[in-house]
Amino acid sequence: MKQFIRVMKALSDPSRVKIIKMLGEKELCVCELRNLLGLAQPTVSKHLKILEEAGLVDYRKDGLWIIYRLTAHEDSEYTAVMLAHLQGWLNDDPQIQEMISRLPQISRERSCAA
Fold it and tell me: Is the pTM of this model over 0.90?
């Protein structure tokens, strides 16, 4: 029950759902997510921590960058099911479409230098 509630709470925030949708497209660092979401870096980091604790995202280090991605762990059936459903959900949402359209222009070097 605890894992189910953790996943549902993590997905109860629109910004966290947007993060999941963007990470479904490609791996991103905090600066890139900040640029896409228009949120402050500490806010994005807080959202990522909640998603990580729910088992929805994990990260890897690449030099100075911490790169976030959707989790590949199948430890939780709730995580796996929700990530699978979210791949097909909200694709026609205007905000999601706009963010996805901006992904090719997002540059880690420019985003993190700002």
Answer: yes
Report the CATH fold assignment for 2-94: Arc Repressor Mutant, subunit A (1.10.10)
Structure token digits, residue 32: 């890139």
The model's pLDDT over 80-90, given as tens digits with 9 standing for 90+, comes to 899 999 999 99
Task: Tell me how far apart the alpha carbons of residues 111 and 77 are, in angstroms, rounded to a whole number.
Answer: 35
Give, in order, the Cα–Cα distances in Å from 25 to each of 2, 9, 63, 88, 113.
28, 22, 22, 12, 23
CA distance 81 to 99: 24
Domain spans of the chain? Answer: 2-94
Tell me the three state secondary structure of residue 91: coil
Cα–Cα distances in Å, from 17 out to 84, 90, 109?
13, 9, 25
- In sequence order, which residues have a C-beta less than 8 Å from that of residue 45 and are 6 or more positions away? 30
Q: Which residue has the tokens 């953790």?
A: 6
